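Table S7 (text form). Paired inputs.
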Amino acid sequence: MHYDVTETAPEHKSGIAYAARDGFDELRATFEEFRSANDERLAALERKRADVLLEEKVDRINAALDLQTRRMDELALRQARPALEGRGKALADTSAREHKSAFDAYVRNGEAGALRALETKAMSAGADADGGYLVPPDLAHEIGRRLAAISPIRAIASVREISGGVYKKPFMTAGPAAGWVGETDARTQTASPTLDALSFPAMELYAMPAATATLLDDSAVNIDEWIASEVELTFALQEGAAFVNGDGVNKPKGFLQYTTVANGSWSWGNLGTVASGAAGGFAANNPSDALVDLIYALKAGYRQNGMFVMNRKTQAVIRKFKDSGGAYLWQPPAQAGGRASLMTFPLVEAEDMPDIAANSLAVAFGDFRRGYLIVDRLGVRVLRDPYSAKPYVLFYTTKRVGGGVQDFDAIKLMKFAAS
């Protein structure tokens, strides 16, 4: 069997849905080949007769599995993208229709008068050419939907829209006193709860797609669709990296940038870690035990919604692990468009997670919906620049986004160390 590990697009026989089913079947078949080859490799190692060719075969199939998983993700993303309103379709809301028409005129011809009048009427902040102009609501929501489909952490975290520059979330550091009393016993006054607040500022994220005069003059081109497709990947890559490793300076604070402590010494404000059992790797014997420890470091209330987060290289290592009954812990998606699973928990690929190395935090497990909060400032702005890169027209597109850990008990990390 030949394993194609080149970056070629999947064959489309009768649309995306057929390609997704076809790719899913191919992924399952490749995993069966991987399982058979890896079992043969392990048997050879037990006989102390390592086979270099067999090792290479397993690595080749592993790489093919990674590529097929990536292709399935791309197909799922294409299916998740709803089409924007076509130019000939009427919008239900009159003001939205006016905004779309004015925005289209601004992007194509630089005519800002109608947009300026609309935003002044709505008393929008920064309604001038220096600050750019708000895109129509449908386009702003579409960009948000696309980011949720392509950005791994955004897809699993909580997302809240805000109208201000900072979102503050109160939390209780000490709860009110409580106790048991009899039906007629006197009730003594209880202590009041002690509250503090977490702050999530929204930082500016930008992209700058360029267009030719021909594209802007072509009335058949859907400008909304073009802008959404141009900025989605840039926004997703930048915010995806920040949600994992951002230092909080002019960007969101990533969950790996918080103070970590051994889980036995966990306290609020820190993220708990579980050791892998060996410096820069898993323990030689029963390596999957560390994954079990990581799962059960999380309280039951969080564990039921737990997910693993790691990059592709780490996943390739863990894919070879078995349980005591000989079953593989990693399993391919149960259906087209689904996620792979690890020990029955969904597995999320985030390429910004670090590789396995000494003291790295290469695996995260937790309820990210409760653990990590993303805040989006309402509105996406576009500033048209026909001067800086003649003959091209640049569109300086910005959105405000922030993020950080909101529940420090909901996420646990694996530290690749002996203890």
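Next pair, protein 2 of 2.
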Amino acid sequence: METGFDHIDELIAKVLAGEASHEESAALTTWKQMSSENEHYYQESERIFNAVNSLTNKYEVNTDAAWQNLNKRLDQGGAKVIPFYRSPVVLRAAAGLAILIVLTVVSKWLLNDESIEPLVFKSNAKTEQTILPDGSKVFMNKHSEIAYSTNDKGERNVSLKGEAFFEVKHDEKKPFVIQVNEVMIKDIGTAFNVKAVPENNTVEVVVESGEVQFYTSANAGLSLVKGEKAIYEKNTGRFTKVLPTPTENTVSYKSKQFEFKATLLKEVIEQLNAVYPTKIVLQDKSLESMRLSVLFDNEAPENIIEIIADTFDLETEKTDSTVILKPKKQLN
């Protein structure tokens, strides 16, 4: 979240409560536009604010009656409540305290109510980054989905469909576990990538830093540390450690860096299509066996396609979101 604004929570609260000035509303709009993280933070604040309103509307509190009852009880004991709360400053402080109490109650209620739906984040035709309520960062490949929830012990649970890179905010007292059907990945203070495409027979985990436990309820699985990769086969229930290679480009969807060393053009196209919205098609089967050695560092997809075409003396044909690579027509 961008930190260029002080007291952002106070500003958000004033806007949501309808008490912000024109200048304050404009300032919040500017802050939200600074990053997608800021926009997401505001949306989560708005969701909690609406939940509070819903709850307080359901359970109305008569504060005047409460003060009168308190006065009566104190009168019986020979004491008197001095009405200092009439002061605007104190009134605002009391309002702030009331909001704090309500938020505390509602937060506890939300965390302990099993009927509350988990937070769901989706990416469609492009990659998306989000920050979970616990501060962990998630970068999702396109067409992926995660659902985040916590239980009454504060344990954090994430279900995943697709592929995502996790930078977990580690907390030993609040485990972070990712689940893909029967297989689980438990954080032990780390950053790692999980590929769990539903139609594939495998779930892949690559650890960038730290350590994870890769297991099922019936199999203790494997412990993975920095630089290690493992594959789980759904049909056999078997875990296998494999040696990752740079040309696999595991997190290229996040870094937009691709390294190819004598890689089959078919595999190059498959990796690019898994990341970019533009679909590349090889018109001729004979092109699939050609090999490419190149390093792409955050290149625009149209530049990548042009480089490939120039390298193999191909021409391109564009149709909507598809680019066809084909041999150039021979001149008679």
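Confidence is low (pLDDT under 50) at residues 78-94.
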